[in-house]
Protein: ElmoC protein
Amino acid sequence: MASAEPLLPDGQEDGVKGWCRRACTSLAKGLALVLAVVFVLVWIVQAIVWEYATIGCSPDRLKDYDYPGGGEDDAGGKKFNLVPMISLLAERKPMWYGDAFDVIPSNEASTVAGAPVGTWWRTTGPLFNTYMYEDVANSQPTVMMRRKLIRLGQCHVIERCDGSGDAYTISEGANYFANRFRKWLGMTQAMSYKIYKGDTLVAVAEETQNGFESISFRNITSRRELASSVLEGRHFHGQYDIWLVDAQKKDADLPAYVSSAATLLYAFFVMHQRGHKIKVDPNGPEGHGSHDGPSLLAATVENVTVANVPSEIVGSGLRAENRVPDQLI
Ligand SMILES: *[C@@H]1O[C@H](CO)[C@@H](O)[C@H](O)[C@H]1NC(C)=O
Ligand SMILES: *[C@@H]1O[C@H](CO)[C@@H](O)[C@H](O)[C@H]1NC(C)=O
Structure:
């Protein structure tokens, strides 16, 4: 029967198959080699970027340092907090060597209460970004943050340059799936992160993405608010984002630099989102008449101080938490 005959004579089919196999093997080997070389190169570049980004961040440069610009509260002094208790994070004009947010002392009325005391720099690397806080007084780096790789979701570790105390970790961890799901459903409390001191879970950071861009930091046991941040405006000096970080809360044992660093991550995230989604009015700092479309958010936040934002918006963490079950049912 014709159908039982092989399409090609035995020898020829073998030849084609064999050639294919050999070609595929050498292609795979070549590809593996290229990947290995790229992998090594990427790590070398990352190591160089890391070295560059962390220049000056070492304990011997911080012996007897008085940490100018640091805030003081019941939990600790300047050395403990490193940044003011209430501060503004103001986006800077991007530079070739990195993006940055200035840290400006502020107050309950969320106004500028002095000259910038420090700057958070971001240095982009091929594998992860490095963030460094440098004070203005001596251009001295005092705390840095970097992403931890091979983790589920986002995970950043914050370490003091003087090497004292435990490192703090902001981790999405197992919240990863819940976070994506909530975001997909468009819930008010879009993201939730855990904050560890060393290995101990001490707080949660809950982000609100719809309406107001804000973060609420809460004590994991007492649920008391430890700090809060809110996107104050999108037209600082015409076109830059400005965030208010308030770490001045009663009985809060969280250093101010932790809430500042966590807010910084979110500020960068929102800043990049703006490029795609939220249009900035180039005609001026006020953004009048833009009460529709994607710039609604900018218009809403504009010219609002935390003092007159309804409390359910500023301290929305708990409220959002309570709402989640209703919406899921
Ligand atoms: C959280 O609250 C507990 C009990 O009130 C307290 O002992 C702890 O220090 C608080 N943690 C932080 C990070 O403030
Ligand atoms: C912002 O607030 C000030 C003082 O309350 C007011 O004079 C000004 O018109 C406001 N700007 C906008 C854009 O609403």
